[in-house]
Amino acid sequence: METIPLLLLPGLLEDAGAFEATLEALRGATTCKVADLTRAETIAELAAQALAEAPEGKFALLGHSMGGYVALEILRQAPQRVARLLLANTHARPDTAEATQNRRRLMELAERDFPAVIQALIPKLMTPAHLADPELPGVITGMALAVGKEGFARQERAIIGRIDSRAHLAAIACPTVVVAAAQDQLMPVELLRELSEGIPGARLEIIAESGHMATIEQPEEFTRLVQEWLGVPQPQR
Question: Please, are residues 98 and 199 in contact by the beta-carbon 8 Å criterion?
C-alpha cells in the first residue's frame, strides 16, 4: 500500500507535542502536517483553515479530542479529500449546558490566571499513574502555555458552538478507526463506541491504562494503531 500524506489535528491546548512519538515513528514513512487549531472561533473556520494548509490531493486525517470535532467538519466540507480517518478520544455530540457553563468559567479564570486553568485541567487528562510521571504533566503544561490564553478562549468558543455531528456520521465513506482510552474521564468509551457505530465499517480500538491523553500516555500503542491504519510497516518486536 502506498502511504499517503497525513494531516494531524490536535486537541484543546495541544500542539504537535501531543503527537511527538508518532511523528518520530513516521519520519521517512510519510509526510506529516500538524494543523494549528488556535486561530479561529468556529469549528467550520478551523476546518477550512486546516484544509487550506493540508497536503495536496487526498490525505489521511487524524483528529484527537477537539481535533476530532474539526475532522468531522472537514468530512462535511471536503469528503473527497479524506482517504482514511482516525478519531481519537473524541465524540460526535454537541456541548451540554453543563459543559458550556464549565468552559465559560474556565475562560473567565484564564483572564485572571491562565496557569491556574492548566493546573485545573491536568488531573482530568491522565491516569493517576501518569499524573505522577516526572515528565508528562510538564509536556501538557508546555503545550498549553504555547497555545496561550487567547488561543484557549478561541478554542473554547469553537467547542461551545460545535454542531451535533451524529446525524452526519452515516455519510462517512472512508476507512475509519476510532481510538478510545479505558480510563478517559472526558471522553468515556461509551461515547467512542457510539461514534464508531455511527460510521459505516468503522473499527473501535480501546487503549488500556490510559486517560484522555492517549497519544502521550501510551505512545507506543497509539503509534502502533496509527501505523497499522496507515499501512506503514512496523518494526519487529
Answer: no
Torsion sign over Cα 152, 158, 161, 163 = negative
Provide the edge-to-edge strand list for the sheet that holds 6-9: 32-34, 6-9, 59-64, 82-88, 176-181, 203-207
In sequence order, the 6+-apart residues with CB closer than 8 A to the CB of 87 are 62, 63, 68, 71, 72, 176, 177, 178, 179, 192, 195
Statement: the pTM of the whole predicted model exceeds 0.90 = yes
Backbone angles phi, psi at 85, to 5 degrees: -135, 135
Cell of 180: 478510545
Taking the chain (237 residues) in runs of 10, the rounded mean pLDDT of each run is 86 98 95 97 98 96 98 98 98 98 98 98 97 97 98 98 98 98 98 98 98 98 97 75
